[in-house]
Amino acid sequence: MFYILSSLCKVNVFFISIVLLVLNLLIESSSQALEKLQVVTTFPHDAAIAVEIGGSYVQVESLTRGEEDPHLVTTRFSLIPLLNRADLLVVNGQLLEVMWLPELLQKSRNDKILPGKSGYLDVSRGADLIFYSPDEVGRSPLFDANFVYGAKTGQIANHHYWLNPANGLVIAKNISEKLSELDPDHESTYRTNYEKFASRLRERIQEWDKQMIPYAGLQVVSYHRSWNYLLNRHGIRILGYIEPLELGLPKQSSLKKLARQMKIQKVRLILLETYQDKKVAGQLAGETGAHILVLPSSVGPNLGVQDYFQLFEVIYGKLLEAFKGLQG
């Protein structure tokens, strides 16, 4: 009897020790998480850069997924808790979030991440921007959103600037400086991480630029005005767009006109993002004999793209393969 009781006591002591150990680990883990700066980004490519710059001193979450259409993000109130506990909100800016983020910020209880406050960062500041001409915007939803929210900037920039890898340097610099401002104790780490990121990105940009030189002057068609920054960088011309206006829906009349131009100019490549309508692009490809090339424009596991560097490795890899095929 004594032996059985003794054994039970030993088992109980062992079990209690395990429970206490697990509790201690959970408490320690929670404590470490709370000590980190809570960074929320509107898009995952900025989250990927924030992770590189912030390292172990930040906890980063994106409000959207890489496979989502960044123009048509729905207002999900389930995201408000993320905003409530954020120390820093990183936004793309240039009106890309104007249809959904203002309402979420209005309903959150976190004044420090409102525009103009210390916890709000628009990473387009200082980026090399391309501005829309008046006939590209027209009375599109983007124009209406701009009008409704009173963002009278005088000019509206193409908000896909992160797809020029050189602008990734600007984004990373902005994030590094803001993290240093909010968390000065770790400023040297953020600066070192930025320098490593910038050095690696500059090296890759040199290589990508070199690889694209033979294809300067080629013409393509793009579904949306997403690739202007990347293509301009390499001297590749855009004959036209499936969407006649920024965010305007494709029209049969404009598709017929574009198909005629493609045949005359012998343009044989149509660029799409992963979330765009492949049926419409397929119709144009069928009429012209052009190829469709789908490219990721952000990062995420469902896209097979883990970070900002891999995003461009995938984009350039697919573009180079397609361009070689056109010349073959």
Largest β-sheet summary: 4 strands, parallel
Low-confidence runs of at least 5 consecutive residues: none
How would you state the average pLDDT, rounded?
A: 89
Number of helices, counting only DSSP H or I runs of 4 residues or more: 12
Helix content: 40-55%
**Quaternary state, please?**
single chain
Q: Return Rg in Å.
A: 24 Å
Shape: globular
Strand content: 5-15%
How would you spell out the order of helices and strands?
Answer: HEHEHEHEHHHHEHEHEHEH
CA(first)-CA(last) distance: 87 Å
State the strand order across the main sheet.
Answer: 2-1-3-4
- Overall SS class: alpha/beta
**Count of beta strands:** 8
Could you characterize the architecture of this molecule?
The structure is a single chain. With 328 residues, this protein is α/β, with parallel strands linked by helices. The chain is 50% helix and 11% strand. It has twelve helices and eight strands. The strands form two sheets. A four-stranded parallel sheet has the order 2-1-3-4. A four-stranded parallel sheet has the order 6-5-7-8, with helices on both faces. Helix 4 links the parallel strand 3 and strand 4. Helix 10 packs across helix 11. The radius of gyration is 24 Å and the shape is globular. The mean pLDDT is 89.
